[in-house]
Fold each of these.
Amino acid sequence: MQTHSLGFPRIGLNRELKWATERFWQGGISEDLLLNTAKGLMTGNWRLQKEAGLDLVPAGDFSLYDHMLDMTATLGAIPNRFGFSGDKVDLDIYFRMARGSEGAKGTPAMEMTKWFDTNYHYIVPEFWPGQSFRLSYTWFFDQVREARRSGINAKAVIPGPFTYIHLGKSVDNDFDRWEHLDKIISVYAELLELLGKDCQWIQMDEPILVLDLDRHILDRMIPAYGRLAKAAGDARIMIATYFGEIVDPETVCMLPVSAIHADMVRAPAQLETILEHIPDHMILSLGTIDGRNIWRADLDRAVAQVDRARRAIGEERVMVAPSCSLLHVPIDLSGEKMLDPEIRAWMAFAGEKCLEVRAVADMASGKSCDLLVESRKILEGRRTCKHIINSEVGNRLASLTGDMLRRNSPFPERKKCQNRQLNLPLFPTTTIGSFPQTREIRSVRKRYVRGEVDHAIYTRNIKEYIEFAVEMQEKAGLDVLVHGEPERNDMVEYFAGHLDGFCLTENGWVQSYGTRCVKPPVIYGDVSRPAPITVEWSIYAQSLTRKPMKGMLTGPVTILRWSFVRDDQPERDTCRQIALAIRDEVCDLEKAGMKIIQIDEPALREGLPLRQKDWAGYLNWAVDAFKLATGGVRDHTQIHTHMCYSEFNEIIGAIAEMDADVISMEASRSRMALLEAFGDYQYPNDIGPGIIDIHSPRVPSVAELTELLRLALEVIPPERLWVNPDCGLKTRSWPEVEAMLQNMTAAAMRMRKRMEKQIK
Ligand code: GLN
Ligand code: ZN
């Protein structure tokens, strides 16, 4: 039985690609050296997968930045602003599309957005009327050729044309980007003709087949793939779907291609429907090993699926693979030396997953397999492990009552209590939480973790930072202060490190975008909070000022979304456990005298399921988790939340149900397009639409900021408008922050004066 994988992590076990690329950008290494590093990593990936026993190894999945950008370059779909000559895309243009460029001839980068419901970001293709397409970048066949040279049985991997177009955007709203389909298919045909000479299989990723699609898109797939299959010559085409159930398996089974790949981890039930529709000539690739999570697989379950397919359509027509590209998991467990050995044994990263794929195929064709025996034993150990279960957490969850999800009084009454206690001016000014993460503060944290500085020195350094931050905010004239988050490297990892039921990996890096990687914490057991986490820092900060200080926490949904989660209970249940732990922290902050507490939920929107039919269910438990985390405080205590990085217009109703007293949201980059939603939907509580883009070092003038506030006042009543930046300021420098905040408070002041005049 044939095995394969859909894609492999590119970044390198020690993030070699990141370091090489960043040095290349700084002019520290040559293009040749960068490309050599890339080649070394690719070759290593191929060897590893081949040695693990995969029959077909992907080539073309490797990228210097992003696979969608690779397709943009290949098609020559380069937006005019980059001054493309129309010949060959070189690395200069390639990276400028990804990152933009500054200076006189500066150009903004292409937009970047999340790849389905993952934490990976792709570069969004741009389409415009009159655009032409031409084969302009040889990256895909360079890889395939290189693989062949290294003696690898390569399967070419490229993004499919329908996914490429669907995930792109038309620069002009009236323009229908599907008008370009035929032109794009022609270039794809040329590409396939070339690829087809060097390999037997071409995998075309069409994950949009798991989304709610317009009929007209599906209808055009059959003739288009007919053309492509012809162009590929002797090479066979596999359509890869993942992240969910194929919405219209009947149509997909009519595509004139040789194989389809379906995700059997996220959507096991689709096996039966696919088997019903699959035509005799078609091969079915079963994604039975989870490519989205780090747990060792239940091999018996996977074998049962494969066996079912084998009996229905015959062994020669079944392939075994991970559910999706392994891009979304770390590379190899060999980098983990400090993990608790018991928990480490429960895990499988990309390399280990390839071994599991091989094992499933072998067992399904009747061979015996050592891995199965080992896995059964380990999984049994995990199921019965005492470290997973915390009966206290179970008892608390069992005795939850509805009023734990509610504040005591409705918002208007709470607001009166809070006004009395806080005595804030009209248009209160505040920030989102973090201040510059300077080299000094990072180094102190690192040395403390390594044991090179003791607790007293560490504490003194953090406190000095807080003192500096408070003084700066007082000088700038802010109304509600923050401590600046100097103790945190990351808003999720910090809390994960202080909660039971979580563990942190040493080297479990996953690409987030380009050279940026994240190291998601792992939730392996019931979550609880052994001791207060942030209280000491918050009360110290509050002791330095008479202005109200905000306690600052990350919300349960965001902690869940940015971690690897347990696969042995529903996410909803895990989220509720995290919510209880955060609730404990919220209550302790209140007890310690904090009058305002902010709970950030920037990941609420990205957790939204891919299919609309599943939205309500998710929003229900996500909103409940936030309410459980915040519902334990008195009316007088003001709860803030914060959201960014996404479009919130679609879920504004759910956001209102969270019933935070104040919400701050990213808005400045879209010139407050967010406010449209607030115009249509009467958001009931206080709002601070961000008026400063924190991604840019540019300091907006007082006049500009005042104008943004004026726009906001068109839809938000004055007594409910807050003034703040888009997000935390951790990536900015202190002088930038000072200048930004001074202008921001000056704009608020100006607005207050205007209002006074109007009232007189
Ligand atoms: N409080 C966090 C900060 O300011 C929020 C970060 C975020 O929204 N991503 O850094
Ligand atoms: Zn933010």
Amino acid sequence: MHQLTLAEIARGLADKKFSSEELTKVLLARIAQLDPQLNSFISLTEDLALQQAKAADARRANGESGALLGAPIAHKDLFCTQGVRTSCGSKMLDNFKAPYDATVVAKLAAAGAVTLGKTNMDEFAMGSANESSYYGAVKNPWNLEHVPGGSSGGSAAAVAARLLPAATATDTGGSIRQPAAFTNLTGLKPTYGRVSRWGMIAYASSLDQGGPLARTAEDCAILLQGMAGFDSNDSTSIDEPVPDYSASLNDSLKGLRIGVPKEYFSAGLDPRIAELIQNSIKELEKLGAVIKEISLPNMQHAIPAYYVIAPAEASSNLSRFDGVRFGYRCEDPKNLEDLYKRSRGEGFGAEVQRRIMVGAYALSAGYYDAYYLKAQKIRRLVKNDFMAAFNEVDIILGPTTPNPAWKLGAKSSDPVAAYLEDVYTITANLAGLPGLSMPAGFVDGLPVGVQLLAPYFQEGRLLNVAHQYQLNTDWHTRTPTGF
Ligand code: GLN
């Protein structure tokens, strides 16, 4: 039963082949048995899950239907979940039980989804390896000595290991797409403003966006359908109708113009990944797509701009964790300053502290113009490159990452080496564009992802292209040995 996709689960539940309660019990047992190897969960919510599963079964018995009614999922542990620890992977919030549900959590619960637990993540979503979590590193089910990617590494490892069919995640600079690539999943970062950020603990507010991680594009369509939509509680949520994502999955790709940026195939890209990307291009050509070389000339500036903007916003967002209102408080503070210093010094891990310092520096008087403002100008140039490209093509295709998943610890002492791995994903966040990563093959037994980018609000187009690709390839069906 653990091999079923969300789409298959919906059919099985509708046909009364099994109940949501039965399925939930099977998956909870599987998590108990296998997750100790992976460390993909921070909290399990067995009681909540069984209660939601029974309620979903009762709703189905009353004639209700719906693709998510009774479907087991998990939430990245930065979505506030009422009455449940919401730690953001940090000691700072180890004792924090959210007093309310994030909009995403509430919407999925209302659709009948069953929450099995909260997944592990890099502390405050800062990272690409899921090694900065206070709760320990997450392992990649494809090779337990390698990282699963980050910051949504827990969601990715759990879904890849078939502990559950799908999970929520967030992407500030690649944290949905990069772990999807590293674990052979399909992951979608929606347009900025498509999915509400209310109740999603902020890292960098102008970049953060929630989205689905699943095995197939078809399942991403189902989960995104439950997550997307306008929310008056989020001032950056966009009031744009949500299309039926499943309805466009089978649109023809005849004449689809795919742009391949020449800058993507530079020296930093593993040639074996380059070859797999070329294979995926050929596959899409067979389906009727037309390939065109394009240029994104400002791409080289994106990493430095991102690593100014994201830490600047993080330093501002994380100032609320001061040991006074909620979260961790140090023992026996001598005075107020000591309370602030020690609560923050003891509550935040090294990477978070590094970014708070970089961000505070970039925003400080005298440096604001030189760093933050400059970075914002680069951000506009990156966006303009995309706008020019989308005048000529419908989607942009390339690798999700320059290398496959690295070994645990390989980049821990060199943060910049890890930052450089974000080269292909970060630009979509700077521009606010939707992006998807899907399985495209293997290098040394480790999965490789191909990334698709589209104009604003064209999530449906991305899912359509990925679905057609998946109907004609079987990379996404491969299961890691031992799971
Ligand atoms: N790796 C990037 C960072 O560390 C992106 C993280 C994310 O998308 N949350 O900031």
